[in-house]
Amino acid sequence: MKVIKNEPLPNKVECANSLKNVLDALYVLNGKWKLPLILSLVQSSKRFNEIQHELSGISAKVLAKELKDLELNDFITRKVYPTTPVTIVYEATGYSRTLKNVLGELSAWGEQHREKIKQSMRRQS
């Protein structure tokens, strides 16, 4: 983990602004499935059943709601093709790709945390 030394603490206004920004981000990206959905669709465009298969454990009802929320916030697009039956494909927008660094850091932190828990469990055994 990278520790920053000798860096001054932020003032009250900077802290308040940072907190507001984090709360805004968490409001839009809240829940268990939004970030995994974005990550899945950044990798490639998918149909509903492909997404549901990839994200094992998500119900169809929850997936439909999360996809609508992500579409409303411009993270994904929904393309309807006039085939029989109708084909619907979901894909990430350029805006969702702005989360690349956030997802990378979150992934790295998750790996670090998993290792910390494993070590803690080994010591308790």
What does the largest sheet look like?
Answer: 3 strands, antiparallel
The CATH architecture classification is: Orthogonal Bundle
CATH class: Mainly Alpha
Poorly predicted regions: none
What percent strand? 5-15%
By oligomeric state, this entry counts as: single chain
Question: Which terms summarize this structure?
Answer:
125 residues, extended, single chain, Arc Repressor Mutant, subunit A, 11% strand, mainly alpha
Describe it.
With 125 residues, the chain is mainly alpha-helical. The chain has one domain (33-124): Winged helix-like DNA-binding domain superfamily/Winged helix DNA-binding domain (Arc Repressor Mutant, subunit A, Orthogonal Bundle), CATH 1.10.10.10. It contains five helices and three strands. The chain has a three-stranded antiparallel beta sheet with strand order 1-3-2. The longest helix is centred in the C-terminal third of the chain and has 25 residues, at 100-124. It is extended. The mean pLDDT is 91.
